[in-house]
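Form 7-S
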Amino acid sequence: MPTSNILILPGWQGSGPAHWQSRWEALHGDLRVEQHDWMRPLRGDWIARLEDVLLSQTGPSILVAHSLGCMLTAAWASHSRNTHLVVGALLVAPGDPETEMGQSNFPSFAPVPMQSLPFFSVVVASRDDPFTRFERARLFAQTWSSEFIDYGARGHINAESGLGDWPEGRALLERLSNGQAATQTKSN
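Output:
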C-alpha cells in the first residue's frame, strides 16, 4: 500500500474485536481514531478528535469509516479547513442519523451533510442494512460524489455479516489508495 496513513473511523459503540475494522488494525497496523464517548456520540467532539488526529499525522491520510464514522467523515469535510490532509475515504454501511433509531441514539449527527466530498471516496452499501435504507445510502453516495458499490444483502457489513478480515474491502482500499476509486478528479 502507498505511503498513506490509514485511519479507522468506527461508528456508534465502536467496533468490537471481530469487526473487520479491528481486524485490519491488528493485521495491517491501521490507526483507530479513538473517541471520548462511543455510546453518546457528539458530532462536534468527534469532528474535533478527527481533526486532532489528522493534524498529528505525517503525510496524507485515507479514512476507513463504518456506519456513523461515515457521517463523521461527511461532517468533518463540511467544516474543516484541512480537507487537503485526506486523499480518500472508504465509507462502509453509512448509518443514517435521520432515522428514528438515529435520532434517539445520535441526534447531534443530524442533519446529514449533503455536499460533495473534496477527496476520492467510495460508499459500500448493503441492500438489507437495518440502519440505513439502500436508496438512502445511494443518495448519500450521489450527494457526496462518491463511487457507489452495491454489496448485496450483507446486513450492516460488520462482524455479524461474517466478513472476517474482509479481503474484498481491503482490495477496495488498495484501489482507493492508488487513486482509482472515482472517475472524477477531485480538487481540494
